[in-house]
Amino acid sequence: MTEVVTNTAPPLRDEAAAAAATAATASGVAVRTLAEVADLAAVTRLFESIWRPEPGNPPVTAELLRAMVSAGNYVAGAFDGPELLGACFGFFGGPAKGGLHSHIAGVATRGHGRGIGFALKLHQRAWALGQDVGEISWTFDPLVRRNAHFNLTKLAARPAHYLPDFYGPMHDGINGAGDTDRLMAVWNLTSPPVRAAASGVPDRADTAVLRKQGAAVALAADAGGAPVTGPADAPVVLVAVPPDIEALRRSDPGLGRAWRVALRDVLGGLMAGGASVTGFDRAGWYVVAKEHTA
């Protein structure tokens, strides 16, 4: 259920704004909302340079962003001086302003490794809280290890649904032409784990410890990098993803498709059965709890 935060307490808004400012300073950028056509056109060019879509199929257009901004939605950019290095676009979902859906966010290659994505998301969080919105959702490819770690550990978002082939074929330089399975992440902006993550103290999963405690390995990679399934017969289940699915799709499309099918069956099946993803180890493992805790 979508959470609506009414009359968000000023201390929480101030805390969120301070965390966003700290993240922007640490990454060496200024993050601000955008409304002018020239800025919005720069956002569309940035997204095209990141996703490399087929001609005539841009991720967004400047006209769409202009309309969205005029309707009160969110577009922001991260600037190093005059240079746009990252951007994020989201729109409100129902019921009216019940939650913000973050549709697309990206950082230019030359901005990688600086924490710009984190700065953008914390700016988005502070902006949403200022609108009395307590929840942001977005989708991400569950096979992309760095995104899973960023979303589930760095931000402390949690997957709500596994969505098979959510967008259909996208035909771009990142997704290729295969199925576009997604996890729908939900970010509870006021929860203690999210507040801790925003302050730079996320809760990190440790699968080595979990395995010693009896966690089951339901999906792993064999010596050749192919997916291998195992029993999901414990309260805590570990589900692996490959190190770099984007490179794998280019070098071995068949193996990339095999991982898509395996992850859909295992992770999607666990979630459909009521299990919850509780974290992600940077070593490439989803941590899944089959038993709900209060």
Q: Could you describe the 3D structure shown?
A:
It contains nine helices and twelve strands. The protein has 294 residues and is of the alpha+beta class. The chain folds into two domains: 10-198, 3-Layer(aba) Sandwich (Aminopeptidase), CATH 3.40.630.30; 207-289, no CATH class. The protein has a seven-stranded mixed beta sheet with strand order 1-2-3-4-5-7-6, with helices on both faces. Strands 9-8-10-12-11 form a five-stranded mixed beta sheet. The two termini are 17 Å apart.
Top keywords for this entry?
12 strands; disordered N terminus; seven-stranded mixed beta sheet; GNAT_N_AcTrfase_prd; 294 residues; 36% helix; alpha+beta; transferase activity; five-stranded mixed beta sheet; Aminopeptidase; Acyl_CoA_acyltransferase; globular; GNAT family N-acetyltransferase
Q: Which spans have pLDDT < 50 for at least 5 consecutive residues?
A: 1-7
CATH class of the largest domain: Alpha Beta
Q: Say what the CATH topology of the largest domain is.
A: Aminopeptidase
What is the C-alpha radius of gyration, as a whole number of Å?
A: 19 Å
Q: Mind summarizing the main beta sheet?
A: 7 strands, mixed
Q: What is the tally of helical segments?
A: 9
Instruction: State the end-to-end CA separation.
Output: 17 Å
Strand content: 25-35%
Shape: globular
Q: Helical residue percent?
A: 25-40%
Structural class: alpha+beta
Produce a short descriptive summary:
The protein is α+β, with helices and mostly antiparallel strands and 294 residues long.
